[in-house]
Design the sequence.
């Protein structure tokens, strides 16, 4: 199987991971006696005696993490689209280059979101949860995706195009 096919499949997987991580309400978790607190990027919920109380977080840093994750989701979607365009014709050097760059940008945006979230959340007694773990997996898979797209474009490079002529 070609690196481009694997890269495109991993690109779809990475985009879905990023999307799920962004909307998942479980980025951190805390259990205190009969009270359970779970927080995501969009809500913080407290469950006590089978009653749930959710509030929207208002801290500025959480809005930054939200923005980073939204931008990452968009960048990874664009990477997936350009990877798909390259699939039809590996000589599309602009699409190949765009798929690599946007996969890297998406990975770095998610990495930034993870760093900000963990730095601001480290002084609380909470444990990182599923959404946070999926974000970390997204970082790794986005970099692997970029590497696979690069590998497939290098194979195509032997067939006649180079990144020095990207403007063509």
Sequence:
């Amino acid at each position: 199987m070609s690196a481009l096919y694997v890269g495109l499949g991993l690109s779809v997987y990475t985009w879905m991971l990023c999307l799920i991580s962004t909307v998942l309400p479980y980025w951190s978790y805390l259990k205190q006696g009969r009270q359970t607190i779970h927080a995501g990027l969009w809500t913080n919920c407290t469950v006590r005696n089978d009653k749930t109380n959710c509030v929207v977080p208002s801290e500025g840093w959480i809005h930054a993490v939200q923005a980073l994750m939204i931008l990452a989701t968009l960048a990874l979607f664009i990477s997936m689209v350009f990877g798909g365009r390259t699939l039809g014709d590996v000589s599309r050097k602009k699409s190949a280059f765009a798929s690599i760059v946007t996969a890297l940008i998406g990975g770095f945006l998610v990495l930034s979101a993870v760093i900000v979230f963990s730095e601001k959340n480290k002084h609380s007694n909470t444990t990182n949860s599923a959404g946070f773990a999926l974000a970390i997996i997204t970082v790794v898979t986005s970099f692997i995706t970029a590497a696979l797209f690069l590998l497939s474009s290098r194979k195509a490079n032997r067939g006649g195009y180079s990144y020095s002529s990207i403007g063509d």
User: Anything to note?
Assistant: The first strand starts at residue 28 and ends at 32.
